[in-house]
Amino acid sequence: MDNIVGRLQENVETIIYSVFIRWFVHFYTQYLVVMHTMQEVIAILGRVIKGVGGSFLVDVDQQIVNCKSRKSVKYTSGNLAIGDYVEVTDLGNNTGVIEKIQKRRNSFLRPTVANIDKAVILISSIPRPDFYLIDKMLVNLAIMDIKVYIVVNKSDLDVMDLFKKVQFEYEKQVEKVMLMSTVTGQGIAEFEAEIEGGLSCLIGQSAVGKSSLINILKPTAKFEIGDVSKNNRGRHTTRHVEIVQMKNSTYMIDTPGFSFLEIDIDPKDLAIYYFDFGELMHKCKYTRCVHINEPDCEVLRAIEKGELSQDRYDRYNFLFDELMIKWRKKYG
Ligand SMILES: Nc1nc2c(ncn2[C@@H]2O[C@H](COP(=O)(O)OP(=O)(O)OP(=O)(O)O)[C@@H](O)[C@H]2O)c(=O)[nH]1
Ligand SMILES: [Mg+2]
Ligand SMILES: [Zn+2]
After folding, report:
1. 267-331 belongs to which CATH class?
2. Is the CB of 125 under 6 A from ligand 1?
3. Where are the domains of the chain?
4. 209 lines ligand 1 (CB under 6 A)
5. What's the average model confidence in pLDDT over 94-121?
6. CA-based radius of gyration for the chain
7. Contact, 274 vs 299, CB < 8 A?
8. Domain spanning 45-101 has what CATH number?
9. pLDDT digits (tens, 9 = 90+) for 28-45
């Protein structure tokens, strides 16, 4: 008898437990759905403009909101990048919480920036330009389909030969090659008109004048300027990354250099990103011509005729070999 009562009791307990668990799961799911919907209703869209310690400054309709980021954001989307569009819940007093990162159009590491519209490569005679570095940056920017401008800065110094070389080598690769001086103001107005709208990212070796340019365009920015006479061997004066608002809807990031340098493509596709090889490539004898030692190559012919730069072509060759070594290591 005791046995039967005991079993009955056990069955009743199991039924109560399973009903309880079902109800619990049901209500908890409802709770999550409601919370998620509420969050979507409340969340506002902003853009990360600067990181400060563990927090982020987010521009929400021109209001700067100091935000913490939810741990889940890090796990689902990786680290936040300057330039990220984010969904923020408002906690009042210009503080908030970053709930979600919107899909990025493009992104770069070291420094971590995202959603760039234009890239501005600054070059000057001091420090001496590293053209191989510039070529690599241009390939990466071409892969990402980002508009590029090249600015030859410090026109108050002796830069005309450099400017001519840059024009010859890159004019067909980029939107425009410009001459400028942040000291005399030459080219500043033209530059301002060219880059109007969107987010432009300044890139280039240390001491080319990136921060000087920001300060000219927006004197209240007061970025620290380096001393070119101290050979600080590529150590950048600017160490942080921050979006600065210029006129209207023009934004700029002053970066400490840029790591556009990790190229990960099949070397046979490299020439696609050399826009100066452009139409010539389609006239080569072989459709898969890589313009190195194939017969009847229009690119090689143009170099012989002096229509394309031998220097740039030699660097193309060098980069091709570098990528080939990497590619073989990776895919055997
Ligand atoms: N002569 C001349 N000097 C310039 C010009 N623009 C900038 N400079 C000088 O170049 C040096 C470096 O300028 P910055 O603006 O600090 O260079 P940066 O590119 O921001 O350098 P990092 O922050 O180290 O990456 C400073 O001494 C500037 O005064 C220019 O147009 N002409
Ligand atoms: Mg700087
Ligand atoms: Zn060819």
Report:
1. mainly alpha
2. no
3. 1-42, 45-101, 108-254, 267-331
4. yes
5. 91
6. 28
7. no
8. 2.40.50.140
9. 888 877 766 665 557 899
Same fold? 45-101, 267-331: no
pLDDT tens, residue by residue, 145-201: 999 999 999 999 999 999 999 999 999 999 999 999 999 999 999 999 999 999 999
Select from 41, 255, 275 the least CA-distant residue to 143: 275
Q: Which CATH superfamily is domain 108-254 in?
A: P-loop containing nucleotide triphosphate hydrolases (3.40.50.300)
Report CA(191)–ligand 2 centroid distance (Å).
18
CA of 188 to the centre of ligand 3 (A): 39
**Phi, psi (deg, nearest 5) at residue 201:** -115, 120
Q: How many CB atoms are closer than 10 A to CB 318?
A: 12
Tokens read off for 32: 């999550």
This model's pTM is above 0.90: no
* Residue 119 tokens, joined: 């890239």
In short, whether 238's Cβ falls inside 6 Å of ligand 1 is: yes
- On whether the CB atoms of residues 98 and 49 are closer than 8 A, the answer is no
